[in-house]
Amino acid sequence: MLTKRIIPCLDIKNGRTVKGINFVDLRDAGDPVELAEIYAEAGADELVFLDISATEERRKTLAELVYHVAEKVNIPFTVGGGISSVEDVDVLLQNGADKVSINSSAIKNPPLINDLVAKFGSQCIVVAIDAKKIDGIWIVHLMGGKVPTELNLFDWAKEVEKRGAGEILFTSMNNDGTKNGFANKALARLSTELNIPIIASGGAGTMQHFTDTFLEGKADAALAASVFHFKEIEIVDLKKELKKNEIPVRL
Predict the structure, then answer these.
(1) Separation in Å, CA 82 to CA 101, 131, 141
(2) DSSP state of 206
(3) Strand 147-152 relative to strand 99-102, pairing
(4) Phi/psi at 240 (nearest 5 deg)?
(5) CATH domain 5-244 topology
């Protein structure tokens, strides 16, 4: 079993870290640069920053944030939100991001995945997929989970892999912020049907949930926000617990 990764996620709105439940009811969770530094020192394997209110005008703001984060951390970090072109990615990578995450733009313009992979390499390109289980079917949503599409999670994930993406960040909208555990059945199916790493997102509430998503969900990495932001789980304690359960992690 390859080493499993623990990834704190910082949802950014107007330059602040926020956290909600089922993609709504946002509350402030602190300064993103300070949190990034704390997580890097606490043993996080990677960080993810998602500008959930990104627009073209705010691209400069996000680039500045990336630059300040890069000054403070020595672990890989991924940036997403409002990225829709090769130029957007170029700016973020030049300012210190290691990877970028695209979501709505990939759905609206699938060849963008191919273009980004051709220019920057698959190791740089993460495709985020927000999906909600409706009447037993996982439906992909865009615009921060606000707009349902006609895409099925598993079909879209396979297309994303085919187009060269390096990994998939799957967020279950049903589980997001509930602290009831990850969507392990869907994750296990993704991990079985695809050959690229799958990052589990949505639902972390206890250390057991992380253990379950690695063993039952076969996830390659687990991403969480509020349990880390509000000190409900310390990363070092989590990793010790995972190690106890014979899940390989970097301590």
Answers:
(1) 9, 18, 15
(2) S
(3) unpaired
(4) -65, -40
(5) TIM Barrel (3.20.20)
Residue 171 identity = T
Domain limits, the chain: 5-244
Strands (E) across 22-105 are located at 24-30, 47-51, 77-80, 99-102
Residues known to be catalytic: 11, 130
pTM above 0.85?
A: yes
Find the distance separating the first CA and the last CA of the chain, reported in whole Å.
16
Task: Give the angle subtended at the CA of 120 by the CAs of 65 and 101, to the nearest 5°.
Answer: 50
Q: Is the four-CA dihedral 167, 74, 104, 177 of positive or negative sign?
A: positive
Strands (E) across 3-93 are located at: 5-13, 16-21, 24-30, 47-51, 77-80
3-class secondary-structure state, position 72: helix
pLDDT values of the chain reduced to their tens digit, one per residue, 251 residues? 789 999 999 888 777 776 655 445 566 667 889 889 999 999 999 999 988 766 555 566 688 889 999 999 999 999 998 899 999 999 999 999 999 999 999 999 999 999 999 999 999 999 999 999 999 999 999 877 788 999 999 999 999 999 999 999 999 999 988 899 999 999 999 999 999 999 999 999 999 999 999 999 999 999 998 899 888 999 999 999 999 999 999 98
Tokens of 193: 């049907």
